[in-house]
Amino acid sequence: MATSFRADRVGMEIKREVNSILQLKVRDPRVSGVTVTDVQMTGDLSLAKVYYTILSDLASDNEKAREGLEKAKGLIKREIAKTLTLYKVPDLVFVKDESIAYGNKIDEMLRNLDAKN
């Protein structure tokens, strides 16, 4: 139970730091519109799944953003190590967050259902 609480706290801090790093430190134009929505940590804090979203729905933009994040992974880990006092900086895995698109799809379906009635 206590490790879960710590993992959640560390995840929130990493989310805040990664958003800040992407806005201020990373100069790659491929990640200019990327926003981190959530970070899920493993219990031993060795791995962080970083969920991100971008404004564009184009597959090419999604691929460019993924490549840009993978390229900037070393810089992001180095900056996290400077600001957070952790024994070991977790490995970062970037995952596209599909929940916003899914929510929009459901919202559109509900509006269409309401329009039929």
The CATH C-level name is: Alpha Beta
Tell me what portion of residues adopts beta-strand conformation.
15-25%
Instruction: Estimate the global geometry from the Cα principal axes.
Output: globular
Quickly give the CATH architecture. Answer: 2-Layer Sandwich
Count of individual beta strands: 3
Q: Give the name of the CATH superfamily.
A: K homology (KH) domain
Number of domains: 1
Q: Give the termini separation.
A: 48 Å
Secondary-structure content class: alpha+beta
Profile the largest sheet. 3 strands, mixed
**CATH topology descriptor:** GMP Synthetase, Chain A, domain 3
Radius of gyration: 17 Å
Q: Which strand order do you get reading across the main beta sheet?
A: 1-2-3
The number of helical runs is 4
> What pattern of helices and strands is seen along the backbone?
HEEHHEH
Low-confidence runs (pLDDT<50, min 5 residues)? Answer: none
Please give a structural write-up.
By secondary structure, the chain is an alpha+beta fold. It has a single domain (2-116), classed as 2-Layer Sandwich (GMP Synthetase, Chain A, domain 3), CATH 3.30.300.20. 56% of the residues lie in helices and 17% in strands. It has helices at residues 2-24, 59-71, 73-83, 99-116; strands spanning 35-41, 47-53, 91-96. The chain has a 3-stranded mixed beta sheet, with helices on one face. A hairpin with a 5-residue loop joins strand 1 and strand 2. Helix 1 (2-24) packs across helix 3.
